[in-house]
Amino acid sequence: MKAAVRQEAAAAPAAAHEPAPAFAVVEEVSPQVEGGRFAIKRVVGEDVVVTAACYAHGHEVVRCVVRYRGPGGAWREAPMEPLGNDLWRGEFTVDRVGPWEYSVACWVDHLTEWRDGFARRVDADDIRLAARVGAELIARSAALCSRDDCERLEPWSRILREEHDLERLRLTAMDETLFQLALANAPRDGLSASPAYPVTVDRERARFSTWYELFPRSCASKAGVHGTFADVDERLDYVASMGFDVLYLPPIHPIGREKRKGKNNATVAQEGDVGSPWAIGSKEGGHSAILPELGTLNDFKHLLMAARARGMEIAMDIAFQCAPDHPWVTEHPGWFRKRPDGSIQYAENPPKKYQDIYPLDFDSSDWRGLWSALRDVFLFWIEQGVCIFRVDNPHTKPFAFWEWCIAAIKRDHPEVLFLSEAFTRPHVMHRLARLGFTQSYTYYTWRTSKQEIIEYFTELTQSASREYFRPNCWPNTPDILPYHLQNAGLAMFRIRLVLAATLAANYGMYGPAFELGENRPREPGSEEYLDSEKYQLRHWDLQRPDSLAPLITRLNRLRREHPAMQSDWSLAFHATDNDALIAYSKRQGDDRVLVVVNLDPHHIQSGFVTVDLAALGLDVGVAYEVRDALGGTSYTWYGGRNFVSLDPQRAPAHVFTLA
Amino acid sequence: MKAAVRQEAAAAPAAAHEPAPAFAVVEEVSPQVEGGRFAIKRVVGEDVVVTAACYAHGHEVVRCVVRYRGPGGAWREAPMEPLGNDLWRGEFTVDRVGPWEYSVACWVDHLTEWRDGFARRVDADDIRLAARVGAELIARSAALCSRDDCERLEPWSRILREEHDLERLRLTAMDETLFQLALANAPRDGLSASPAYPVTVDRERARFSTWYELFPRSCASKAGVHGTFADVDERLDYVASMGFDVLYLPPIHPIGREKRKGKNNATVAQEGDVGSPWAIGSKEGGHSAILPELGTLNDFKHLLMAARARGMEIAMDIAFQCAPDHPWVTEHPGWFRKRPDGSIQYAENPPKKYQDIYPLDFDSSDWRGLWSALRDVFLFWIEQGVCIFRVDNPHTKPFAFWEWCIAAIKRDHPEVLFLSEAFTRPHVMHRLARLGFTQSYTYYTWRTSKQEIIEYFTELTQSASREYFRPNCWPNTPDILPYHLQNAGLAMFRIRLVLAATLAANYGMYGPAFELGENRPREPGSEEYLDSEKYQLRHWDLQRPDSLAPLITRLNRLRREHPAMQSDWSLAFHATDNDALIAYSKRQGDDRVLVVVNLDPHHIQSGFVTVDLAALGLDVGVAYEVRDALGGTSYTWYGGRNFVSLDPQRAPAHVFTLA
Fold it and tell me: Cβ contact (<8 Å) for B17 and A365?
């Protein structure tokens, strides 16, 4: 059979029916990342609004559609509407997680061109001939449609071919219903299509999440006692009551004993020192084991369930590096780089040495074995029920590894989220986001002035990078006590909290250090905490009357109650006449939140805010009520220019909701 | 043999020596058009300055190069220098016409990383071990280089391996010459390269040309007599003396007799009417024939030579459409669209009919035959010596045709230039430029206000489209007597002339209508000329004392003498405090031209020009002399702010050269 088919094809005159190259053009498709090399990101329920330049030569009329499909689904089409200047717009909604794709297709619409011309014709002969041209076009549609539709189109075509009465011909030709039917079934002449552009669709938490980080070993009810997963269980209500939905734990694996660091990063550990959770692996196991002092795998799985019962998820820390006594060091010596004396290369930045950490050699001759083992670490914990991973220093591992690893995991587990902890150069952070990380830590931690905040958040929320880079903003982390918080009072902590919680749909904090205003650096010039939990147990008094927990609770409730706070793209800044006052808003339909923050922790600051009424969808000349979700007070504002005065000792900000 | 090789490959452990995916990244390569889908444009002798983001993960040190090659040449490399923020810059010069390409390559530089670390080490053991690491790296370079170089690198490697004296080790390790030698020969670990991006390199006239259009049939010395190529010969000195280097002739082919249009586009021609040169083809021949009234092919070839002898080239008009009596209509009826009554479809825009013109059907079943015939039209005239084509209405033919046709011609004739006469929508004009047209007509013809001119020329000369869109600016054409020139005095013609000649490195005019100030429209509201040469002979009095020829001559001499005027990219606008005064400059090294034009043809306009000293490379606080190339006057200016007053009846502009 096959041979026969081939012969037929060879016998046919090749050029006779070969269509000319496509006449229609599709270009400037947006959104897309590097021509489809990487995916744009969305969460379930969001729209993908697609624009493109679509046209053909001369005055050819074109039509175009967005084609799209979800994971495993068939291609569907959404119409595109002209925006003028050869630009078109269409949209579709992504309704489940996983990999989607879309493409723009454009073709020449001879039917519309025919009808537009027909309507303008005046000579009788001309009209009759044009009607016959239309009859041919309609017959082409009839040949392609269902039998029912065909039975409507064929008589139409026949009348246009045969009718001689001019007035009837004209009326018949302009039949709108039949025209639309013919149009929908017309062959797509000169069809051209863009490449298919990928979309990674995540669950909603990718766009809106509220993180709390704590050290399980510091959760014991008694000071000096090593905390356990059971103690974290006890802590869950506290965390949930503040409104967090992600509880992130530093590594829970066995901690290396060889070259273990002591308190405050001392080179030599003292008896009883607990070591750094990021020095992973000991004779008790490696990346798939649990530090016995914390409990068992079953205890951990119970914790996962208990968190879920409170509407929270546990995010796990993945740090791909090994302590010298990690089992891989003896089981897979080839996964580590050797020095010329045969010893294993530890981490270093000459003259500094980090002899407690062995980096993995991603370029080793057994790179496939190593890469697979690392992927399997994720898969193991996914198996246990973990769905969110905070990845430690991903920027010190090759991009190609992450791209392969995340794709391999999301293929079967599209619900899994990855937070990139890459505090590094912009290009590197952005590439990690492009190649698959769901969320990314940001420079927010160090952006403090009004101008810095406006510039940075405008870049994060309004530039093209928002298609793939989802910011997660933290005022502090166990690694970073930023200078502005060092030895600072709670007023500064409140400012940084309000900014993070209201600027960013994804934000987090390292507690209880944050809510208790922990502010002592290890030494001047260092951003490390003194007596850091990274190297020792700490015991926190959560009942302190000055705890920021109530403010955190109010802010997180506001975030949950207001859809405007749950995404970043609507962020708009409003002018103020005082550089210590920053004003911005977010909006989702009728839900609007307007925030004014006093950036100065020491002085009352007053000034005028010029509200951008258009950004908030407010009419000029109509009064509106703003109600402070923190203070409870309401004001009636009128027009753009309104006076504000904020005392950092009382409240750092107005967080207004608009009625 | 082949089978044996295959068996060997199958037997080898596949993964053992398989390198990991590339670690280095190249992105954001600039310039490029749609990821290399289309070529950027340059002329011989120009530089291509390439920037890219090049980096690897972590703190890996990278190196990168621009690879490039000319037509038929081998790949060469130019070094790239870091600009900070992971951006790199390199450049190369294109030194002959034809298709070039370039690419950016980046790899991990372990040698530099090693040396940087070595310099910072303090422990003796550490230094000795690091020296041995260096010895291994140097040995890798030695293995890849010439025998001479190897004989220098191997001893170096040996010393680093064996030397025990720390001070000597340190000194030896830091040997700069040997280091550079090792670096130049180091294996390119983790190599990554961008795609190859195409460059179309044209001869210089693509960037700098001065066009004059005339109707040969109007060149007879006696009124009412049909001009010939011999008459054009006589006219060459006049055109050359004004400083033009391209003489563009409307179509010179036989003109259709069927449905010929009369004077002023009358539907019916009168006895003796000469018809439109764009209604191509009659029994005397088609696109490869010459209108007998103009002369013979030999006469035309003589004209080509005579023009060349005066430093000019003849540009030929190519209009792919046919009069009803064009030979193709009977020889290739399949190349035209049929109406249902069997007649051939003429051009129309209902209710308007252009029955003297048959469009070609680029989608016909014999499209290959048609497309080849059209390409052969170009090739025929190239054979006769034509090297520049002005293409009539290319936007009414498919893009795919032009892309194929121009590529097919430039493959063997890279010296040929194509000017696109597409007065249409921006996307269409830009696509024609991208797909291969060398130069493009512009909207300059209608841009008159200061703001319009600044916006449009900033787009033309500073946006990314300048990589492929080379503007050619015309104050008038036989099809366009723009409203501002209608019934206007010579002052307005002078303004439009100075603007075109000094804003655009490529400009042209339709003469003698332009230099003689022809300003009568066919009727109010029309941009057609009254008694247009498109439909009848005209006789022009070139000796009129008010002719603009002397001003044209001065401007064209300025353009030839000043390299600053010969390209567009240096164009910079300078502020003025009067909207009737526009100021701008161009610069090439030390050559600088500063132009101030009074846009108001009726009144003296005065005001202050704020010269952007930085754009001109002038020092603040140093006096400079400006000399008016039109008036001859010199002024000493000091600083940015300088007073100007221009009387449109005397001189529309200062065209200053700076000393």
Answer: yes
